[in-house]
C-alpha cells in the first residue's frame, strides 16, 4: 500500500471519528460512483479554490474538500469510512434506543409514582370525608340529645311550676278558710257556750285604726289577734285538766278584749258619724 493510500485511509478514519459527513460535504450519497464524486467535488469546491476565493481563501476548508474527494474516490478508504460511520451510526442508534428505553422506564416509573400518589391522595381524601361525615353525625346526635334534654328540663320545669301554682292556690284557700274561721270565732261562742259580753264586728273598722289599750296604743287588727289568741287559750284550757279558777280567768281575758274591741268600734262609729 502506497503512502498516498495510507494517508487517504488515515483521513477516512480521522473524519469518521470526527463524525464529518463527507457525502453531505460533496453533495453525493453512498451509491455515487467515483467519476460522479470527482464532478461533484469540482462543482462544490469551486468557490473555495485559491483563484476564486482570493483574499477569502480558507486553506483548511479547501483541504477538507480535497480529502473528501480522495476518501470517497478510493475504494478501500471509502469502505473503511463507510464502515466506521455505520458503526458510529449503529452505536448512536443503540444509545438513542437505550436512552429511549431509559426514558420510557423513567416515564413509566414516574407515571407509576404519580398514579400511586394520586391513589394515596384519593384514599386520604376519602378518609377525611368519612371523618367529616362522622363528626357531622356526632354533632347532630349531640344536638338532638341536647334538644331532648332541654325538652325534658322544660317539661320538668312546667310540672314544677304547676305544682307551685297548686301549692299557692291551696295556701290561698287555706288562708281564706282561716280568715273565715277567725270571723266565725269573732261571732261565735265564748268559753262554754255562746259569747257573753259586747258583740264585736258590728262596725267595719279599718285594721290600722289606732285604739287605746290600757297603757299602750294598738291597732284594731292587733286587738282582733289578741282576741283570737285569748279564745284559743281558753279553749285549750277547757280541753285540759285546768281548774275552775283558771277557766274563769281565761273567760275574763276574753271578755276584757271583747270589751276593748267594742269600745273601739263605738269610738270609730262616733268619729265616723261626726265626720
Strand-helix topology:
Blueprint: H1 3-17, H2 22-26, H3 34-45, H4 50-53, H5 59-73, H6 75-187, E1 210-213, E2 216-219, H7 220-239, H8 244-274
Antiparallel strand pairs: 1-2
Helix pairs in contact: 1-5, 1-6, 3-5, 5-6, 7-8
Largest sheet: 2 strands, antiparallel
What would you say the CATH architecture of the domain at 1-99 is?
A: Orthogonal Bundle
Summarize the amount of helix as a percent range: over 70%
Specify the number of helices.
8
Q: Evaluate the radius of gyration.
A: 69 Å
What is the highest CATH level, the class of the domain at 1-99? Mainly Alpha
Uncertain parts: 185-197
Q: Give the strand content.
A: under 5%
Let me know the number of strands. Answer: 2
* H/E topology pattern: HHHHHHEEHH
Sequence of strands across the biggest β-sheet: 1-2
Annotated CATH topology of the domain at 1-99: Helix Hairpins
From the spread of the alpha carbons, the general shape counts as rod-shaped
Separation, N- and C-terminal Cα atoms: 173 Å
> What quaternary form is this?
single chain
What is the structural class?
A: mainly alpha
**CATH superfamily membership of the domain at 1-99:** DnaJ domain
Q: Average pLDDT value?
A: 83
